[in-house]
Design brief:
This protein is mostly helical. The protein is built from 20 helices and 2 strands. Helices cover 73% and strands 1% of the residues. A hairpin with a 2-residue loop joins strand 1 and strand 2.
Amino acid sequence: MPGIPSDVDASPASPFHAADWLVLAAYFGVLVLTGVLVSRKPASADAYFVGERQMPAWAVALSVLATALSAATFLGAPQQSFSGDLTYLSANIGGILAVLVVGWFFIPVFYRYRVVTVYELLGRRFGTAAKMAASWTFVIGRVFANGSRLFIAAAPAALLLFGDTGLDHPEHLYLAIVAVTVVGIIYTLVGGISSIIWTDVIQIVVLLGATLAAAALLLHRIPVPVGEMVSTLAATPFKDHSKLTVLSFSLSPGASFTVFTAVIGWTLFNLAAYGTDQDLAQRMLTCKDAVRGGRSALFAILMGIPVTMLFMVIGLLLYLYYRRPDVMGASAPTYPVKDAEVFLSFIHHEMPSGLRGLMMAGLFSVAFASLLSALNAMASAFVNDFYRPIWKTMPDRHYLLVGRLAVVGWGVVLALFACGCVSWKNANHETLIEFALGVMTFAYSGLLAVFLTALFTRRGTAFSVIAALVTGFAVTWLLQPPVWHDLTCWLFPDLGTHRGWHGLVLASPWRLLIATGAAFAVSCSAASPASSEAISGEPAP
């Protein structure tokens, strides 16, 4: 297929103009004003972390959606359909199945015990040591997950500050990571979870407006009717199907998005995300009751499907714009683009002044939504699961101060990890979406296994829980493509001599399944002591 080579770096064609900076300034001004208007100074640590459980379900749903999307979706979803097909959408099958289970079994138990962090439930079931181990696992996993998202979000920030994405100039990427982190820390310190949720509502509106504007501009620029675009894409082969394929029945263990990974692997992934990850679960705990909390999760998943579809459509339109000169004719662009930077390249080169600023505001909206959420959730876990049990008699304002100091500390840790993701991403050779989701499985495998043990079995001890959390991390690490390749070549040296042998590559959903299974077996390997408190995953009334 004739097209523009993808291995040449795109040089910036035009700087940001005054109108773009004005739009960005207006965006940040609205964020600050929203934070001032909707948040009052938290009177207690509980108000800071769970908003006194008075948040409406629709606002929580929008906040969950904004947090779940992230910069990885903004840039990665278009890359996924630009380079491939629409099978990423099939992962939503697992999302819907998972939130039904979470809303029916997990959330009612969280509300029944009035927990501030979901790991307090494990403390009741297995003891303080298990609760602290699970909370540390979450925190480390959140460093992995949001550190990788911060790394992805730094590319547009570098483009804004330096005129390039930083992938060929790491020093620009590092400075952009610091800039985004500092802004996120300052905003998180202002008003706690309530202001973050209301800010997320504004963020998602900006995101949708910017994305719809990009789609409209692409439709205007491509000089053929929509029907011809669809027929062209349908006739474009990708692997053994077309670029418009949504459901793949491939049995390849390296395929991340198939019907089988959707029903199995991505269901487990979303069970972990909505049921065991304090970052998302914390939002559902801000509702008045379990029913509203469960509804917010379901609404977030259902709203996320058309939003993700919109990003995927943009990727298909970008494919026509950049890779099909036969469609574009004389309007075909002549500068090179990289697959991972295709949406950024379009924003930077093709967007008119002002609209370019709106697009960057939309991108920063999802970047900051996930960053603010992570900082607050990690601080919440630190204060309620580590600090408060040790210093039990301090006044509430002391815990509030410690929580804010924890926000700063975890922000620094996230920034350092994001800098390390620059080389990690290059070693894994995955798309942005696959990399961001795969990183999250390190913590999810052990956490999901432990929560399943707590809710649905009568087995497990503090020791077996801690061992299961370690097992989940270890097995996930062993199954990482570079590690797995080196391990198989060490175990079977003859295979390493065969040209083209790369080992058995497993997609992240299958890595999660194997690691969760191993961790669950370890968690259930010991019988619970008679003195442990029974926790049952009873459905919502």
